């Protein structure tokens, strides 16, 4: 059973969350986690000005995702940073190329979910995941979030991401904050949870 994890990461926060999601997927017997980057749309000169070139070298070894890989997966867990309360443009452009899959019903019945990040504590994480869910629903996917069975999202002893809609992390205004252990635990939980659902759907 193959669980595809397509993600976009500019400074590495979503990549680290994607790794944790993959760790959770691998806890399910017979589940294979496949990490993929969605294609970059910004020119190198812009990425250089944004200070993203060096951070992106850490995950440059991850292959770029193709649309066909979505159809071949048994479950898909998408990772995207928040851009003004919505997914980033790179992910949007990638999803806009999936019309052929929609026509064929290639994603119908597959389990799917979303994880995200934002600079600030209330930076549109929930709206990003919820608006992303509309894509999953249009494609006929079985939408799964991060249940309250993961008690870490109810913690009030520390600042943390995570909601019933999906795992998330808070990156800080300058990207200085790395995902906390609680946020990574949420990502692992979501990965395992969706892989378990996919396993049941696969029968």
Automatic annotation (TrEMBL):
Residues that coordinate or bind NAD(+): 11
Single GO MF descriptor: NAD binding
Residues bound to FMN: 9-14, 82-84, 138
Assigned GO CC terms: membrane
Reactions mediated catalytically: a quinone + NADPH + H(+) = a quinol + NADP(+); a quinone + NADH + H(+) = a quinol + NAD(+)
Residue ranges constituting the Flavodoxin-like domain according to the UniProt record: 3-194
Keywords: Flavoprotein, FMN, NAD, NADP, Nucleotide-binding, Oxidoreductase
Transmembrane domains' residue ranges: none
EC number: 1.6.5.2
Residues at which substrate binds: 102
SUPFAM superfamilies assigned to the protein according to its UniProt record, in alphabetical order: Flavoproteins
Signal sequence segment: none
Similarity-based family: Belongs to the WrbA family.
Protein name: NAD(P)H dehydrogenase (quinone)
């Amino acid at each position: 059973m193959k669980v595809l994890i397509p993600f976009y990461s500019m400074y590495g926060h979503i990549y680290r969350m994607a790794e944790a999601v993959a760790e959770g997927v691998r806890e399910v017997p017979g589940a294979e986690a496949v990490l993929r980057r969605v294609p970059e749309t910004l020119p190198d000169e812009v990425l250089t000005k944004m200070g993203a070139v060096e951070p992106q070298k850490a995950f440059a070894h991850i292959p770029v995702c193709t649309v066909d890989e979505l159809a071949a997966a048994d479950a898909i867990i998408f990772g995207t940073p928040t851009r003004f309360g919505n997914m980033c443009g790179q992910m949007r452009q990638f999803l806009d190329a999936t019309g052929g899959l929609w026509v064929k019903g290639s994603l119908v019945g597959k389990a799917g979910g979303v994880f995200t990040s934002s600079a600030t504590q209330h930076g549109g994480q929930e709206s990003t995941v919820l608006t992303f869910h509309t894509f999953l629903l249009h494609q006929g996917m079985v939408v799964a979030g991060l249940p309250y069975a993961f008690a870490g999202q109810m913690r009030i002893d520390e600042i943390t991401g995570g909601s019933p809609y999906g795992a998330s992390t808070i990156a800080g205004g300058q990207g200085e904050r790395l995902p906390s252990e609680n946020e990574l635990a949420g990502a692992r939980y979501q990965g395992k949870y969706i892989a378990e659902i996919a396993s049941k759907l696969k029968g």
